[in-house]
Amino acid sequence: MAASIGRETQSGIFRNGALGRAPLVPAGWSALEAAASRVMSEDAWAYVAGSSGLEKTTAANSSAFGRWELVPRMLRDASVRDLTIELFGTRYPFPVIAAPIGVLELAHPEADLGIARAASALGIPYVASNQASIAMEEAFAATPRAPHWFQLYWSSSDELVTSLVTRAERAGAGAIVITLDTHMLGWRPRDLDLAYLPFAHGLGIAQYTSDPVFRKLVVRRAAVSPAAPRPKITPAVIRTLLDMTRHYPGKFWPNLRSPEPRAAVDTFLEVFSRSSLTWDNLDFVRKLTKLPILLKGIQHPDDAELAVKHGMDGIIVSNHGGRQLDRAIGSLDALPTIVDRVAGRLPVLFDSGIREGSDIAIALALGARAVLVGRPWVYGLALAGAAGAEAVLRNLVADFDLALGLSGHRAITELGQGSIRRADR
After folding, report:
1. Measuring CA to CA, which of 132, 139, 293, 385 is 20 to 30 A from 117?
2. Which positions ≥6 away from 138 have C-beta within 8 Å?
């Protein structure tokens, strides 16, 4: 499939068109984004599409790709192409990984099951979000032969961190991805203007409410916390209470009378993040698991060097898709110096800004081993569930396959500095 996915996907779309069948999702980024915006709620669209501040970091991600061009070569027999990669002893068919995205129930009821099935269909890793709508055990069990990774947000409770990592390994995760850049939430005006945080409604905390350590913290809080003053009953208050009740494990009516759903939200908001972490803390997780550990959020070459020094297995160059720090460096601008500093001592992956196949080719030419993709497949999920997410990811891989061949390359390993040039030189 790897050698012909571009042509097969393209031909399939055209054949279906001749029979009057429209594509499941738009093939281009702008149309995909516009279509998703029409089907998602205002709250959901703000949360998924929004970024921090003036959204300059998101713009920087796009601009960074605009500074590079592919330089195609001719007459090199690119009829058969090898898109496979190897990471941590496992060979994957494509250099694409489904990035961790939280609160997927905002996009579609299939939520994490949808992306798990979509990634499984392509044989690529899906990184289960720490802010999932469906517990990792259920999502992994739905796709038992597929590769799964787990994203960790480092909680203020080390006992909870231990439990989450242990659960991930037991459930069959192939790697742990520690996200470093979300030890506090960025300033996101779109969410702030709506005064909407999904976690405050009990959404996106399924990894927590399914965790025995977290549940113990909830029961303790519910037992000792004084009764909160009753707010004035409004439609918004009722909606929030119903959201909390529906999303807490157990039956609806007992939950409605129980203090635990509200205590769960308060407990999550209290233990979610930890800004006091230092590099020395990494040894704690290193001792918990034998799985490969990747650090996501690296933007500075000195931090890449520290990741090597502290025994990490991989790094992901990422600025969280622009959602955390506004006016941060574009991820692609950060990539070359980090690749140079690491010098092959561990794999460097890339995240933030992939929108088409040529983007993947440029990131790989600059030294990334693989790329993570987030918002595009979320938009596909919103449009058509698992099938929509799969179609978006398949389109990206197909576009990359064609870009590889059209630029005169037969394998990912042929991509390098000679394949690209600076557009602004």
Report:
1. 293
2. 112, 113
Going by their DSSP bridges, the two strands 420-422 and 348-351 should be labelled as: unpaired
pLDDT for position 289: 97
Which residue segments constitute the domains of the chain, with CATH numbers given?
Answer: 5-185+274-422 (3.20.20.70), 197-271 (no CATH)
Q: Does residue 365 have a pLDDT over 60?
A: yes
Q: Are 376 and 355 in contact (CB under 8 A)?
A: yes
Exposure string of 93-104, with b = 16+ CB inside 10 Å and e = fewer, is bbbbbbbbbbbb
Using the structure block, give the residue that is written with the tokens 């009953």.
Answer: 233
Give the residue from 211, 213, 228, 212 showing the smallest Cα distance to 263: 228
User: What is the number of H-type helices and E-type strands within the chain?
Assistant: 18, 12
Per-residue pLDDT for 2 more than 80? Answer: no
pLDDT for residue 63 is more than 60: yes
CA 359 to chain CA centroid, nearest Å: 17
Give the active site residue among 108, 201, 247, 320.
Answer: 320
Could you tell me where the beta strands, DSSP code E, fall in 283-399?
293-298, 314-317, 348-351, 371-373
Pair 205, 199: CB distance under 8 Å: yes
d(CA 308, CA 343): 10
Burial class (CB in 10 A: 0-12, 13-18, 19+), 179: buried
* Catalytic residue list contains 320: yes
**What is the arithmetic mean of pLDDT over 235-259?**
81
